[in-house]
Amino acid sequence: MGGSPPVKALRQVFSRLLAGLLSLLFVSFVTFLVGELAPGDAAMARAGDKATPEAIQRIRVEMGLDRPWPERYVRFVADAARGDFGRSYQGTREPVADIVARALPLTAKVATLAILLAAAVGIVLGTLAAVYEHRFVDRAALSLSTLGVTVPNFVLIPILQYVFALQLDYLPLDYDPRLPAPEIYYLVLPVVVMAARPMAMLARLTRASMIETLQQEFVKLATAKGVPKWRLYTVHALRNAILPVVTAVGSSFGILLTGSFITETAFSIPGLGREAINAIQRRDTPVLLAIVLVTGALFILVNLIVDAVTPLLDPRVRESQL
Amino acid sequence: MRRDWLFWAGVGYLTLLVLFAVFGPMLRYDPNTPVGRPFLEPSAQFWLGTDQQGRDIVARLAAGARVSLIVGLTVQAVSLLVGVVVGVLGVFGPRWVAGPLMRLTDAMFAFPDILLAILIVGAVGMGLLPVVVALSITAWPAVARLVRTQVASIKDREFFVASQALGAPTHHLVLRHVLPHLWGILLAVSMVDVAGTILAESALSFLGIGVQAPDASWGSMINAGRPEMVSHPLLILWPCLLLSATIFALNFVGDGLRTLADPRSR
Fold first, then answer.
1. pLDDT beneath 50, residues of chain B
2. CATH number of the domain at A96-321, please?
3. Among A258, A302, B24, B109, whose CB has the most other CB atoms within 10 angstroms?
4. pLDDT value at position B265?
5. pTM for the complete prediction?
6. Are the beta carbons of A23 and B122 separated by less than 8 Å?
7. What are the helix (H) ranges across chain B?
8. Min distance A114 CA to chain B CA atoms (Å)
9. CATH superfamily, domain at B5-265
């Protein structure tokens, strides 16, 4: 403790940046280690199936794969930082960076739409549940969120596909990269599936935070002053209750970005999650490593931004720091 | 009252599930060999019918239950062992051990589990054993964190301070005064953790990188049933129901045990 408020704030920002940097180092090291343990290497892929062991060894020396591991780790990180993840072991040996660049926007789009839906529905549901505590709306919201947290995505997906795609025929079963219909049409079900869990969690959090806020003195004062009900709930209470919810929205977004494997595989969406699973099945290690590295870095970055921004939303913190 | 009812329902369901997993696969048919025509309706011979390859669905569900329980219990045993040792060392260990161990725990905790599990499966290969390895590695940091906070709070209690003042050696303090206080909460948390592990195993098998064909897992049965969803929705319904019921039961039992272990929590 100690020091003037601005110095304290700076120190906090600095220590968070340091923690983020450490996590990044951890992610990159684990990824590198897995690359070392995985069978096959870039030299074998480059030499082709018919190469002699001597030829492979020659290429290995040429590519610097015979160097000691600390040296290779530093090169791995330096290359990754420049966006160079090597080439795929399979097919036309496409640069991995191209695969990531093609898949990332779709994953980010689904995650963004899902978090927007989850935040909108979750906050409204949670607020209603708090306002009507112990009444029907509250019970319904709580049961719905228990379901949302416990029913796994890969159970929810077949149910939604069965009802909305196969029986009612409202929505397409799978993503179609030729896009005969507007893209959003293909993304409705995946976005709903991805949103289910964070929606349930945010509803619970909003409810708890709102109930706590509604018991505070200033709410009683506002009621006594004759502030209209809707204004009391939205302007007075929700603004105070929303802080922990905003933090949770941020970290949920990070989880959605890294947790798209099931949804993308089940709906054949060519995003990062499906590419990663394909890479495991084809033993295409560089693609898997790159996807884990990129999504891991995004996850850390999102959490860093959340940590840095949320204190600014609280007027008490804002004023004490400036 | 409602909580009590759910707790006992959960205990009852889990008992049946264990019996089903132990005896089900040897009950009538082998889960991996075709025993009849594909897509047979439920009958006295095949209680839930046969799947797309003519295999008995009851036998496959039982084999899937076995996989779920084996993975859930093995991973939980490993993560309890590692988590308790790391958590206790994090408080009582010498600084040069405690510091790095806790840094490592925090670093792993900050990393999304599913990403790490998929990375490890990518390195070790696909199958039951790699799944157990991957999920064990991702599961222990949560236990270690819980143990560390619990141990740190016990350290300030009177009985502990008194024993320490009387000159009790550290191993005596840990074995006699710390660990006995932990079992209740750890058992409660384990139920919820096992549910998480079973879900993760099913997810990996659903993705096709967990338990490999012809072996059955609830996750891979759900995935295999998806193309037949229109004509034979029951194929996918049974593993979905069993999985969801298992997750609910473990959570209810965990909640009940937590109330028993720490009455103040409610």
1. 1, 266
2. 1.10.3720.10
3. A258
4. 55
5. 0.86
6. no
7. 2-23, 57-92, 95-109, 113-124, 128-154, 158-165, 170-172, 179-206, 218-225, 234-261
8. 18
9. MetI-like (1.10.3720.10)
